[in-house]
Amino acid sequence: MKKKKNRIPFTLLVIFVPAMILTVQIWNDYRGGVMRVQDQYSNLAGMYYLDGGNKIAALTDERDGMYLRLHMYEANTGNLIKEQMILANYEGPLAAATYQNNGVIIPTVDSSQSLQLTHVRDTGEVTELARSTLQLDTPWAGVHAWRGRLIVNGETSGSTTYLAEVRDAEVKKVILNSPDVLPSDPENISDLDGSFKNELPVPLFEVVLEHGQRAHVSGILQQDGLPAVKIQSKDVGISLAQEQASNMFAKLFGVDNTRLVRAEDSDPKQVRFYNAKTNEWGSVVNTPKPVYQASVFLLNDQEVFIVGSSMEDEKQGEVRGYIYNEKKKSFVDAGAMVGQLSFEDLENTDVQFYKALEDDTLYYSGGEQLAGAMNVESGLVHIQTKDQMLEWIKTANEGQLSFRGFLGHIGEGGVLVLNWAVWLAIPLLVIIVPQFVLPLLFRRRTRQINEGELLNGTIMEMAETGTYVNNQPLVRFKIRFEVDGERKEVELKKVLSLLNANRIGDQVVISYNREKDKAMLISDEDLQGQMPSTIHHAVLERIDHYGFLNRGKVLLLHFIADEQEYEVPVVQPPGFIYRVGTEATLILAGGQVRLQSYGVGTSELADQLALEAEVVRMEKKETEFLDRELLVMDLIITSGEDSIRKTNSLFVPLDTVVQNGTRIPMHMKREDYERELRLAKGKQGAATIRTVMYEGITAGERPMAQITVDRGGQVYEIRQSIDPIFGVEIGDELWISYDEQTREALILHYSSNG
Q: Is residue 540 within 8 Å of 580, Cβ to Cβ?
């Protein structure tokens, strides 16, 4: 008997020997692959110091041309703080980066020509600011940096021209087609490039309107969120119209247009004051030491950076630099940092300098070649070269061999992996497979619980059956309960713990299936499993496509949170895009994962109402995958005595019992619920969609949109979450409820095109 007992483990050990040898070989193959992957980091795309020079962020290209990898390090130790993927096409980061709100904003363009504004804060927090609202796929689209701001112009998916200003890490966007801005729709818009280089006091755009009319628009926005506009008179030439608009805008924005700081065009290219009002050059700016072959970088609303050579022949001189405060008329010497640069470094078109007005740090970025930071008070300087940064990145990634990565390598297959799998199959069948039985039984029990409704009952009778499971008795119960006012009794069996014995007369919870007239006794553990849990800071890592449904795309979103992967099926309506790298908050209930919100910060979820919705109509769509089906339901959402009606689509597990009268828990932001409740009581009628702009965020799986509709010549604005099954597009007819005083509206029924 002893030999027989030892024979199976010994046999398994014999079988495991080649499996272990092959495992070592696969690990070595995986490790070699990781080392080879490091070669991609030779292509550095950009570097930016942060936190006064204490941290540094670098970007490297990914080989598929769709992503950049952000690496953040402690500048003094080279220790890796974090890595994160950023959407970007093959062009890499744009040169128009800027520093705002204790961080750097790095602009990139994704493969769909949508602008990504990645805000990397000193704390390491990474946020995407544009949220799919800024398209750059038109010939006149552009991104400009000007005095610490980002200025963007382009055209939306609805063929409406927009202008956006990014200030204090906040995107403010205005549609130029609006009658509040221009008298007619723009046909073309072009920036006056020199206005972004201090040739004019305010950045300027020239707009060609319908019927040949022209206008000038300021690149920065006024207090009311609109740009300044000057319509060109028919009898005024282009140059004079530009001057008139420039002088008008300078007065509006409080800019002294008689003392602009500019580098002269001809040798020795010193920096002079320029009177844009009279088009005359003034005196040389009296820097502490002369600067020749100079360039001027606009830092913020008061400061510019003058940098150039100490000699008229720049090849013989050294680099000098001074921060000039135009308001205080004072200088700060930044030679300690720029003195380490060559004049050739300054001629690089990617060279930029940055400084916030109240910040003591002057930042420098030379694209992928060099980065620097200088504390202008202490004179402390940090400089990082491309070679140093690549060495840090490679060193950090040498330590990134992981068991999870190894499993991913096994999943890629190959001859070596196939042989390993064969040798491993038999012992796995003997040892591992039984461990899956209990989880399968648990999932089956969870499904059965979900098919019924939870009700309170009373134990009327109970008796042992004579059967024991793990030394615990199987007990037959008779439970009395009420459903829809009718008293019913049901018999069921359950293994009863001797430590937690029930008694006749005890109150219990059951799951009652009306169709089968069967019930299950629910334990505390079952109830715990039914309680939804919230998963914060889940990052979208991968998107799988499963075809089309109506006008939308069926997607499976793969999120990562705390090294766990979660799958969420959604429908993506036209005009809205789920993007890899965006954070979401998930809800896990009954083994199923759903979106609570996408692209919304945790702090924005605070004021949520817990509501209950009753299904009043339900339709099944012919879309099934991952054991789920898509239901479209009309819901009555109630809070106290108030209620609103909403159409909602939802992926649910197959065979889930959902029918008229089924109640579903829901959450809504308090202000959204109160607005929709107020508008639902208004007048109703048909309207046609004029513009649609998605905000890049969702409430549940419903994308938030800002819509303007036309009803009888009156324009109404809608801010509402949109059911993705139907979606909204320009030209759709909707049935709305509207408020004639506030010009707000609410969608009651979607277009029949959905």
A: yes
Could you give phi then psi for residue 678, rounded to 5 degrees?
Answer: -65, -45
Q: Quick count: other Cβ atoms within 10 Å of Cβ 413?
A: 10
Q: Which of 587, 584, 590, 588 is nearest to 557 (CA)?
A: 584
Angle at alpha carbon of residue 291, lines to 290 and 296, rounded to 5°: 140
> 234-256 b/e with 16+ CB inside 10 Å = b?
eeeeeeebbbebbbbbbeebebe
Which two three-digit tokens encode residue 330?
């004072």
* Residue 353 contacts residue 305 (beta carbons within 8 Å): yes
pLDDT at 117: 94
- What's the 3-state SS for 662-676? CEEEEEEEHHHHHHH
Average pLDDT estimate for 609-635: 76
Q: Looking at the predicted structure, is the pLDDT value of residue 523 above 90?
A: no
Closest CA to 316 of 374, 268, 387, 258: 268
Closest CA to 709 of 682, 678, 685, 677: 685
Measured CA to CA in angstroms, residue 524 lies from 464, 472, 506, 508, 509 at distances of 22, 18, 14, 10, 9
pLDDT at res. 753: 47
Round to whole Å and give the CA distance between 223 and 245.
Answer: 18
Report in angstroms the alpha-carbon separations of 145 from 151, 269, 323, 352, 373: 6, 23, 18, 10, 19
pLDDT confidence tier of residue 7, bands split at 50, 70 and 90: very low
CA gap 303, 615 in Å, rounded: 61
Three-class DSSP category at 149:
strand
Q: What sign does the CA torsion over 716, 719, 721, 727 have?
A: positive
What residues contact residue 394 under an 8 Å CB cut-off, 6+ apart? 38, 41
- Give 120-145 pLDDT, tens digit per residue: 999 989 999 988 788 887 767 789 99
Give DSSP secondary structure letters for 541-608: EEEEEEEEETTEEEEEEEEEETTEEEEEEEEE-TT----TT-EEEEEEETTEEEEEEES--GGGGSSE
HSE, side-chain direction, 13 A CA sphere, residue 631: 19
Query: What pLDDT score does 433 carry?
Result: 45
Report the C-alpha gap between 360 and 97 in whole angstroms. 19
**DSSP H or E run through 639:** strand 628-639
Mean pLDDT of the chain: 82
CB 341 within 8 A of CB 370: yes
Q: What is the pLDDT of residue 41?
A: 60
pLDDT value for 415: 59
pTM of the model: 0.54
pLDDT score, position 49: 95
Evaluate whether 636 touches 680 at the Cβ level (below 8 Å).
no
Helices (H), 253-400: 335-338, 343-347, 386-398
CA torsion sign, 455 to 460 to 463 to 465?
A: negative
Taking the C-alpha atoms of residue 56 and residue 49, their distance in angstroms, rounded to an integer, is: 4
Closest-CA residue to 297 (of 341, 257, 256, 263): 263
Tens-place pLDDT, residues 344-354: 888 777 889 99
Check whether 205 has a pLDDT greater than 70: yes
d(CA 609, CA 601): 17
CA distances from 544 to 35, 580, 700 (A): 28, 11, 19
**504 vs 509: CA distance, rounded Å:** 14
Q: What is the mean pLDDT of residues 451-473?
A: 76
What digits encode the pLDDT tens for the residues 648-683?
888 877 766 667 777 776 777 788 888 888 888 889
Please give the Cα distance from 378 to 672 (Å, whole number).
Answer: 50
Is 4 exposed, middle or buried (CB count within 10 Å of its CB: 0-12, 13-18, 19+)? exposed
CA 243/CA 311 separation, integer angstroms = 35
Percent residues over pLDDT 70 in the chain: 80
DSSP 683: E
